[in-house]
Every structure is written in C-alpha cells, then in structure tokens.
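Predict the 3D structure for this chain.
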Amino acid sequence: MNHYDVAVIGSGPGGYVAAIRCAQLGMKTAIIEKYDTLGGTCLNVGCIPSKALLDSSHHYEDAVKHFKDHGIDIPGEVKVNLEQMISRKQGVVDQTTKGIAFLMDKNSIEVYQGLGSFKDATHINITKGDGNTETIEAKNIIIATGSKPASLPFITLDKERVITSTEALKLKEVPKHMIVIGGGVIGLELGQVYKRLGAEVTVVEFMDRIIPGMDGALSKELMKVLKKQKVKFALSHKVKSVERKGNKVTVKADDKKGEEVVFEGDYCLVSVGRRPYTEGLNLEAAGVVMDERGRVQVDGHLKTNVDHIYAIGDVVKGAMLAHKAEEEGTLVAEILAGQKPHIDYNLIPGVVYTWPEVAAVGKTEDELKEAGVAYKVGQFPMRALGRSRASMDTDGFVKILAHKETDEVLGVHMIGARCADLIAEAVTAMEFRASAEDIARMSHAHPTYAEAVKEAALAATEDRALHI
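Done. Predicted structure below.
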C-alpha cells in the first residue's frame, strides 16, 4: 500500500492547486480523479469550454454586425460552422487538461484515475474503470469533489432536448428557440452564445431580476443590454412543468399574478444553479459530517469534524467559483505546512462572461443599506471613454461604493468591455484598504477601459469626475 502525507480527492481547480501547493511545501502528495482527464468541471465542462464558445460566437457576431462599420468587407455570406466551433472548444479543453497532467508530473504528484471513496478516516479506496480497486493511506485528506448542475424535482433531464450546461457545450445544431430556466451566470452566458448564432432565446427566472446575487444596478444594465440583443425575459415566473414531445419542449410557469404562461421551444437549458457533489465518497466511513444543504461541514480553517480531513471549493459553503476553490486549496496546503494563511471572502470577485462582461467585488448597495453603513456612490459610464468609442463597446459603467466618513472602498461593481480583467484592480485596492481618493490619484493609461475605474473613484471623491 502506498502512503502519502496528503491525498486530494478531485482534480478541479481547488484540488489540483491544493496538490501543487502541498508538493511545493515538501509533502508527498497524491491526487484522485474519477474521470479520464484532470481539471474537474471548470476545465472540462465549465469555465474553459464556455469561454471558448463565448469567444467564437463573439467573433461571429462581430463579423456579421460590426466588421462593415470597421471598414472590413467580407465577400459572400458569413456562416456558422457549429461543428468546427465545438471542435475548437474541445481542442482548448484538451490542451488545458494536458497542461494540468504536466503540472502533476512536474511536481511529482502521484495521479490515480478512479472513484475515490473512504474506507476509513485514513484509507481511500480507488475503484478504477475496469472494476479493480486499489487502497492508499494518507496522513491528511482534502475533499475537492466540486459540484454538479442542479435541477428541479419535476424536471426530467433527457440530456438531448432538456439539457444542462454540460450538454449545451456540445450541441450538434443551433436551436431554433432555446428556453433557459434560470437567469444566473451560466444560463445567461450560454444563452448569449446561442443567441449570437441565430437562436431565439427566452430566459425564465423565478426572481424579479437576473443575476440576483449581484448589485441591482448591474442586473438592470445587463438586462437592458441583452434586451437590445433580442434576448427575451420572463421574470418573477415560477416554472412548474417541463415536457418534451418529439423535438418540441413545452415549459409551463406561473407569473407573479399566478396566471399560467406557456413557452414552447426545441431546447430547454435547465440552469438553476449547482449542488455539492459527494456521491460515492462514503463519508460515513470516515465519520465526516455534512450540513443540512448536503455540503461538507467545515470550520473557519476548512477542517471537517475529523481532525486531518479538510474540504474545499464547491463541496463546502460559499460561492461556487473556481478561483475561490483555488484560494482554499492553497490555504489548506499552507495550514498543513504550519503556516498561517488567510482568505477574505468579501474580496473574492464574481464575474459574468457575457458581453459586456459583468464583474463585482465587495458589498452591494443592498447589503450596505441592510447593515446600516453610511456610504457614497461614484459612477462613470463607459460611453464617456475614448477607448470605448474606438472599439464600439460603449455599454455599461463602473460604480464604486465608499464609506461616507472614511472614504474606504467597500464595493466595486462594473459592466462593460474587459471588466473580468478590470475587477482585479478593485480587488487589489480593497485588499490594501484603499480609499476612493487613493484610486482617483493613481495614474491610469490613456486610452484604456481602466480609466472608468479612476473616473468612478473621482466621482465618489467629492463628485469630481473629469469626463462627464
């Protein structure tokens, strides 16, 4: 039997980063992955493939709608080759997952392919594809098994016409009408992909706004932009049935008045969030406790009720984000090495990779109001930037919330071109507890989208933005 200082179950961003950091710190490390490729949901059927399709569809939309304005004439009709688009996406995935395999080898991490389950608190059984089982022993164990798409109890996912995000990444045709149940990040991103490629898209959302976890101003602006792109919305609608007959899918929902509304399409994307994935782990054998929502229960150091077993990422409480899992993986590795790391969960940014992109960090206005915190707002529109006009990306704004008395930045919320990258400036500033004036006095290159951050900070500092 092989013995390890640390065994990591799951090779998604949290798991593989935890394994690398453990190995860097001198621990003999193993990682266990039940699928044939490393990288978990994010690299195989999540973050990476969805961004590949978002980029491809964005190029197509630019060619059809915007190239002419830029003085680029394309002879003949521009057509979608969905098969090639999906093939390119898979190529990106393959290259990325092979990169993780390389990193495991580089860091001398032992990789086990198979389903990992607890035999007891220190031994893990690994059941391989051929049914054979191998057992390893580990002094410390990190559970990093991630999450799976959630559904509603009355929905039958046939994975052909009634699908999750996994199947939406490999469709063989562009839908005529895709009904998206759920107005969160995943539904909007994939909905925009197929809208660009020619599908009619209708988003049915239970709440009274899309991206409900983000600042209300972002929700309102993104919905305005997506409506301009001809995406249809049915907010405050409670879905009660989804039925497929042949190639037709019928979704029935009650609106806020309680009246039934019927939607008909040829595909239905069920995008109602994700759930922690613990099936097959046999946590009971190790004595590990779960909470009432099916997550592995951990303390402030991500330790379970069993002293040497930890859990990270989507399988524990908190935002289901790859970068949050990575930070947690690093934290646990450093705790095991006797260090004293920390994570400020308030400063984990959230991003929606639609176009325009949406990004945020820190507190929303609603949260500050609820907490009774006195604050001020500085906001600057992207359309006022020379860089935005040059690229024809004029939708959106940057909004900074700062403490009314101390001027400390409490939250930054943005929608516009490259906001997924711009948010890092806000995270950096807030990690160092910067004031709005600190950001306002920093030189920002001209012309850039980042100037909107400076201008919003100026607006929050005595309302003195320069370009509006």
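The chain has a mean pLDDT of 97.
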